[in-house]
Amino acid sequence: MAYEGGGSILPLKMLDKCIGQKVWLILRDDREFCGVLKGHDEYFNMVLQEVKEYELVENQRILTTRHSILLNGANILMIVPGSEPDYDS
Amino acid sequence: MAYEGGGSILPLKMLDKCIGQKVWLILRDDREFCGVLKGHDEYFNMVLQEVKEYELVENQRILTTRHSILLNGANILMIVPGSEPDYDS
Amino acid sequence: MAYEGGGSILPLKMLDKCIGQKVWLILRDDREFCGVLKGHDEYFNMVLQEVKEYELVENQRILTTRHSILLNGANILMIVPGSEPDYDS
Amino acid sequence: MAYEGGGSILPLKMLDKCIGQKVWLILRDDREFCGVLKGHDEYFNMVLQEVKEYELVENQRILTTRHSILLNGANILMIVPGSEPDYDS
Amino acid sequence: MAYEGGGSILPLKMLDKCIGQKVWLILRDDREFCGVLKGHDEYFNMVLQEVKEYELVENQRILTTRHSILLNGANILMIVPGSEPDYDS
Amino acid sequence: MAYEGGGSILPLKMLDKCIGQKVWLILRDDREFCGVLKGHDEYFNMVLQEVKEYELVENQRILTTRHSILLNGANILMIVPGSEPDYDS
Amino acid sequence: MAYEGGGSILPLKMLDKCIGQKVWLILRDDREFCGVLKGHDEYFNMVLQEVKEYELVENQRILTTRHSILLNGANILMIVPGSEPDYDS
């Protein structure tokens, strides 16, 4: 049996639990995405729908909305399940 | 059985669904490509046709059109299926 | 039998011992996280709860609290088990 | 059976079709090569003949010609089959 | 039999010999750690105890002491077994 | 049978043909090496003899000669078989 | 049989021949090490003894001597067998 990890909530299992829910993704270059997680693979590549993309351009936070995207997992720093930033409020 | 991922739309399955359709690719260095997806492999290497390439050079967006290209998947940040940027309008 | 390593406390075994306890994570880009370790895999990807995130922005240490996160292990420089920074005191 | 990819033109199959033809390669650092593709492997390492190398040096495009080269595939951003840049015209 | 290397002291065997002893680790970004090696794996991930961390901040060498840490092996430039820097003297 | 590649001159086969001959190597950081190829492995790690190393230092091309070297293949951008730069003329 | 490479002196075989002899290592960041090679593995991780480390700091070459070190092979640019720099003369 390959080594799976330790603890009660394994990383990929946590992602499985987020399927169909909102996730907030923060990338290494500070780009942020928020959307409903539709699917993922073992490399944290992710399919999101109803997507909001936040990008800092000259200290301005630019919002772009997209219907759905496939995001390359290699650039993801952190995934915050079940929540989104309050930049729009 | 190797672990495939979780959710209703797995990343590679989503790419399969884009075959023959327009995809909009955004790279890590902010280059953007838009074209018809003809084929892909598991590393997100992609064959595109009727390709528009957008590159920001000194704040000017330069458009280059190409018949077909093979794009190295390692540089892809995000894939936006079935859509394209409206920079030309 | 695959080579596991040497010594009385193997890295992954140490992580196993931290399950349910506070860990302080320092990333390569100097971001710091502190939270209860709920799970991890062999690549140091980690599920944390009751999370404090410290980020240096123009020499100011910004604190963000989050309920739970999944952190990509590739960016982790160091894990300090059972402790947290005293920036709040 | 290992996963090969999706679509009518798989990336490596496209390269196979370019054997004996001109290809135009654009690297991540903006260097460009154009030559006849004589062979390749699965990592996009390529053997080119009748090679033109274009390099931007202080906004000047420098052309170097070489009989044949072996190019490391890891630096390739994009391959444009059957065409070449019109910098010489 | 997988290739193990050559010579009388193989890298991982050397690490094995350092178990329970002081090691001085120099990272690629010039951070330095010194502590007792409690365990390691094949990727040079290391468990250290009685740890001194030296970091150069604006030409000042800052010392931080920690009870124990798990250090990601990917950032290690060099391991100096059985010795420590004399910055404190 | 593992996939080997396509075309009449596969990359590693081309290297095999260069054994005993002069090769000119250009690295990603613009360092250049020229010497007789004595051996190589599948990662483009190379053993060269009668070696000339060219390095640009403040726009000056510095030549260093060495009897033999082992060069790490990961930094190689391009291999030009059977030729050398004419910087000395 | 796994592919080993081509030529009369394979890279790892060359390292084997250096066991017990002086080697001069030049890293990607221009740090240099010179010492007696005691052992190595397939990733060019190396155990050196009687080590001289040369580091350029503000155009000054700083020499540090160490009894023995384990050097991470990933940062090595080039290995010059059986020789050392003449910086001390």
UniProtKB/TrEMBL annotation, chains A, B, C, D, E, F, G:
<keyword id="KW-0508">mRNA splicing</keyword>
<dbReference type="InterPro" id="IPR033871">
    <property type="entry name" value="LSm5"/>
</dbReference>
<dbReference type="GO" id="GO:0003723">
    <property type="term" value="F:RNA binding"/>
</dbReference>
<keyword id="KW-0694">RNA-binding</keyword>
<dbReference type="InterPro" id="IPR047575">
    <property type="entry name" value="Sm"/>
</dbReference>
<comment type="function">
    <text>Plays a role in U6 snRNP assembly and function. Binds to the 3' end of U6 snRNA.</text>
</comment>
<comment type="subunit">
    <text>LSm subunits form a heteromer with a doughnut shape.</text>
</comment>
<dbReference type="GO" id="GO:0005681">
    <property type="term" value="C:spliceosomal complex"/>
</dbReference>
<keyword id="KW-0747">Spliceosome</keyword>
<dbReference type="InterPro" id="IPR010920">
    <property type="entry name" value="LSM_dom_sf"/>
</dbReference>
<keyword id="KW-0687">Ribonucleoprotein</keyword>
<feature type="domain" description="Sm">
    <location>
        <begin position="10"/>
        <end position="85"/>
    </location>
</feature>
<keyword id="KW-0539">Nucleus</keyword>
<dbReference type="GO" id="GO:0046540">
    <property type="term" value="C:U4/U6 x U5 tri-snRNP complex"/>
</dbReference>
<dbReference type="InterPro" id="IPR001163">
    <property type="entry name" value="Sm_dom_euk/arc"/>
</dbReference>
<keyword id="KW-0507">mRNA processing</keyword>
<dbReference type="GO" id="GO:0000398">
    <property type="term" value="P:mRNA splicing, via spliceosome"/>
</dbReference>
<comment type="similarity">
    <text>Belongs to the snRNP Sm proteins family.</text>
</comment>
<dbReference type="Pfam" id="PF01423">
    <property type="entry name" value="LSM"/>
</dbReference>
<protein>
    <recommendedName>
        <fullName>U6 snRNA-associated Sm-like protein LSm5</fullName>
    </recommendedName>
</protein>
<dbReference type="GO" id="GO:0005688">
    <property type="term" value="C:U6 snRNP"/>
</dbReference>
<dbReference type="GO" id="GO:1990726">
    <property type="term" value="C:Lsm1-7-Pat1 complex"/>
</dbReference>
